[in-house]
Amino acid sequence: MHFLRKYVKKYWKLFFTAVFFLICEAVSDLLQPTIMSKIIDVGVASRNMDYVLRLGGLMLLITACGAVAASLRSIIASVVSQNFGADLRSDLFRKIQTLSFRSIDKFDKASLITRLTNDVTQMQNFLNGLMRVFVKAPFLAIGALIMAIRLDPHLSVVLIVVVPIVIILIIVSMRLGFPLFMKVQKALDRINGIMRDYLFGVRVVKAFNRFDFEVEKFSEANDHLQQRSTSSFRMLAVSSPVILFVVNLSIVAILWMGGLGASNGTVHVGHIIAFINYMTQISISLMIISMVFNMFVRARASTARIGEVFAVQDAITWNDQSSKETSVKGQIDFENVMFSYADAEKDEVLKNVNFTIYPGETVGIIGSTGSGKSTLVNLIPRFYDVTAGSIKVDGVAVQEFNPHDLREKIAIVPQKNILFTGSVLENIKWGNDRAEMDEVEQAAKLAEAHAFIQATPEGYQTRIGQGGVNLSGGQKQRLSIARALVRKPEILILDDSTSAVDVATEIRIKEALKKYAKGLTCLLIAQRITSVMDTDKIIVMDQGKVVGLGAHTDLLENCQIYQEIYQSQMGKEVL
User: Fold this and answer.
1) Parallel, antiparallel, or unpaired: how do β-strands 410-413 and 362-367 relate?
2) For the chain, what is the domain count?
3) What is the pTM of this model?
């Protein structure tokens, strides 16, 4: 829970200010039964109206002070809890952003969403309750107990018996509740995961008419959540009435003992009324304490889940100093690179990869599915760290770069095109938010996107739905290319980014890139051999190894894997 220290340091003054007003409110509640008993036993018994009015006015004044304190406490509690929730959510989001892909892969994406939303809300609500009633309840219970013992030691014997029983019941409830609420949060993770998968793949669901399957899968997860929640609240439903039953028994005992004392003159009627009021306060406080512990159990479960994210020590460390400028721009060196997503060497995805890409070269990367092409380029901006070997950009090892400086040099069009909700202009400028309109249009023209953008009624202000649902695959790819080009990078990586466009459009994009990309290093991953045939050189990947490196004609002569790819796609015998 070390991550909470930051917020304790920031909000402790306001927190204790709220607690101070909370105590003032509790003191006003504690004084009233004692004043009432004096009004009855002294003022009413002796028919002294001045005494009744004087103490009655004092009660009203104390009540007004308590109301003011309660209002100030509520205002401060709301401010602190809302700001705490906003800060925690923001810091958690920043922490997730700083994690490497390897670290993020440890968490289910739906679970991260739950932690950012529901778990933070649980902690926020607990903090809010802590400043509203949670601190007040034990203070009021202890205060009422002291005032009751001071008022009548004989009747307080009942409290000495009842309070320990209630405390034991609360502790048992807390110990049983924590594991149950942990299971509730995990069940909620599963619900979010299923909903995310359905919304992401809704078109596939409709295409294959798999509604019943999705409904059944969601219903199963929903029933699981319902069962977990029911089990948790069933425990609360049992513990709270049991505590209330014990407290009510004590009130009955006080009435019986007080009635006997009143009949023989050893107990005043006002004392009995005050004692019952104190017992009621203790009863309410104990019920609140029970609720507090139950909320604490949920907040504790959420705190543990959020703490897991903050506790992740990313294996990738960065140089925070500004990187030194080099005379070389756009050179990439792979030196004996080995990489594995897992720790085991037998699961290596890349094996002893060696090559150099010189500034201004356009290099094609081709190979069968799963050969390691995308993994190869993901190592360049250091999304992952190599298991062994070294990768250099502009002659400097990527580990020595400031992350901002390294990724400013690189623009990537990923295999899976991601567009954001907003306008076309906003999505293109996402690559460079300082780009002028003429730069945006130039990038769109180079990517063969300008024409279809202009054809829409709103042009560059056309709204894009979530994930680009209102665009075709080819249109999304072209906007993604425009977004990368407007960045004006030193290194451009196109990861199978023209697979959804027709051949003629692809040719025009490549021709535009040749004119635009003078001095720009370009890596072009492709499945189609026609996409890489005219590049300066081609890297052929197979099972994580570089099995061929050279120009198209050279590879046709001396690389068997490349020959096989050529024959399978072109339908011609290699001479």
Assistant:
1) unpaired
2) 2
3) 0.67
